[in-house]
UniProtKB/TrEMBL annotation:
Domain Dehydrogenase E1 component residue range list: 71-364
Cofactor(s) needed by this chain: thiamine diphosphate
Lineage: Eukaryota, Metazoa, Ecdysozoa, Arthropoda, Hexapoda
Protein name: Pyruvate dehydrogenase E1 component subunit alpha
Catalyses which reaction(s): N(6)-[(R)-lipoyl]-L-lysyl-[protein] + pyruvate + H(+) = N(6)-[(R)-S(8)-acetyldihydrolipoyl]-L-lysyl-[protein] + CO2
Keyword annotations of the record: Oxidoreductase, Pyruvate, Thiamine pyrophosphate, Transit peptide
Known EC number: 1.2.4.1
Biological process, per Gene Ontology: pyruvate decarboxylation to acetyl-CoA
An example Gene Ontology molecular-function term: pyruvate dehydrogenase (acetyl-transferring) activity
InterPro entries: DH_E1, PDH_E1_Alpha_Subunit, Pyrv_DH_E1_asu_subgrp-y, THDP-binding
Length: 399
């Protein structure tokens, strides 16, 4: 795990340059930040078949600084609530938490445009929220209630939102689907880019390399994003992969290694990917080196194949929220009062959503055949009981 846990000295390297500006306009009663913008040095990217990579200096406004902090905090809080609901046996079945990996999703989403699409694996709660679902919609889906984004029928692994194609339960299966979505972007000529995310545990799947091949043959606007959290279930990447340089696994597809614990690095890398794909250069492979604090799923304590000291060291030296908080405070893009106010707001929003997710009822049996089709030609749906067909109904609102 030496790649996963760098020394503190490396983490603290890098200079910052701040620019003085007007205080941030806000209705908050907290003391305002005194600087409107700052520039940050980013840990160098590793490149494969690229002469030039993403910018290694990122500029951040005070307004964006607060927005990113709030999103990071909400994702962490959603997963804390999810873990508690699972322990209470209100969430049943599989439940995979994203705690520790928040900077990947938040930074990527900050760079994405409305036309861009995302498809990921089953560690998808945070992505669902970032793509437009409400906190209630996420937590209610986890508890199987009618206010869930899938009406409570999908659960933890099957959440969806506009331009967000899940939430997929089969390891690696979302990657060729992502290539298909990239094909749709190119076919329609809408200028969109698809981001297909998978873990290091799925990186050895044959279907990934088939998707790479087709994406490069057709120069699809698709970015294959490996969220390398160090472990595929309970197996470390060193034990599972002959090559752990996942960003170079595309061979003939250019690749980028990114510090996935730095929200500014993930944002800048995603900007680069969008520029690359929209200029007709084809796909990219992007490795986000990150870490998960919980086990693979809630049924995995996560300490039988790694030590508690390892987890604690990452929390103390690389936590994506703590390190980002220190950056924006030291560069006066935010004040402690402003961040405390955001923390309180996030806590209240997630707590209220948790209460609603517990209180809402489940859907009725009449929705068993609901929303199978967008445009239903034949409303008679065959069920498992002979001569007892179901009746299709439309429930979800359509845009």
């Amino acid at each position: 795990m030496s790649k996963i846990i760098p020394s503190v000295a490396k983490l603290l390297a890098g200079n910052t340059v701040t620019k003085v500006g007007a205080p941030v306009a806000t209705t908050s009663s907290a003391k305002y930040s005194t600087k409107s913008e700052a520039s940050f040095e980013i840990k160098p990217f590793k490149l494969h078949k690229l002469e030039k990579g993403p910018a290694t200096t990122a500029t951040l406004t005070s307004e964006d600084a607060l927005k990113l902090y709030e999103q990071l905090a909400i994702l962490r809080r959603i997963e804390t609530a999810s873990g508690n609901l699972y322990r209470e046996k209100i969430i049943r079945g599989f439940c995979h938490l994203y705690s520790g990996q928040e900077a990947v999703a938040v930074g990527m989403r900050a760079a994405m445009r409305d036309i861009d699409t995302v498809i990921t694996a089953y560690r998808c709660h945070g992505w669902t929220y970032l793509m437009g679902a409400s906190v209630v919609g996420v937590l209610s889906e986890l508890t199987g209630r009618r206010t869930g984004v899938s009406r409570g029928k999908g659960g933890s692994m099957h959440l969806y939102a506009k331009n967000f194609y899940g939430g997929n339960g089969i390891v690696g299966a979302q990657v060729p689907l992502g290539a298909g979505i990239g094909f749709a972007h190119k076919y329609k000529g809408d200028g969109g880019v698809n981001f297909a995310l998978y873990g290091d545990g799925a990186a050895n799947q044959g279907q990934l390399f088939e998707a790479y091949n087709m994406a490069k043959l057709w120069d699809l606007p698709c970015v294959f994003v490996c969220e390398n959290n160090g472990y595929g279930m309970g197996t470390s990447m060193e034990r599972a992969s002959a090559s752990t340089d996942y960003y170079s696994r595309g061979d003939y597809i250019p690749g980028i290694w990114v510090d996935g614990m730095d929200v500014l690095a993930t944002r800048e890398a995603t900007k680069f990917c969008i520029d690359w794909c929209t200029s007709g250069k084809g796909p990219l492979v992007m490795e986000m080196e990150t870490y998960r604090y919980s086990g693979h799923s809630m049924s995995d304590p996560g300490t039988s194949y790694r030590t508690r000291d390892e987890i604690q060291e990452v929390r103390q030296t690389r936590d994506p929220i703590t390190s980002y908080k220190d950056k924006i405070l030291s560069n006066e893009l935010a004040t402690p009062d402003q961040l405390k106010e955001i923390d309180a707001k996030v806590r209240q929003e997630v707590d209220d959503a948790t209460k609603q997710a517990k209180a809402e009822p489940e859907i009725g049996i009449e929705e068993l055949a609901g929303d199978i089709y967008v445009d239903c030609i034949d409303p008679v749906i065959r069920g498992v009981i002979p001569n007892a067909p179901l009746q299709h109904i439309s429930v979800a609102q359509r845009n």
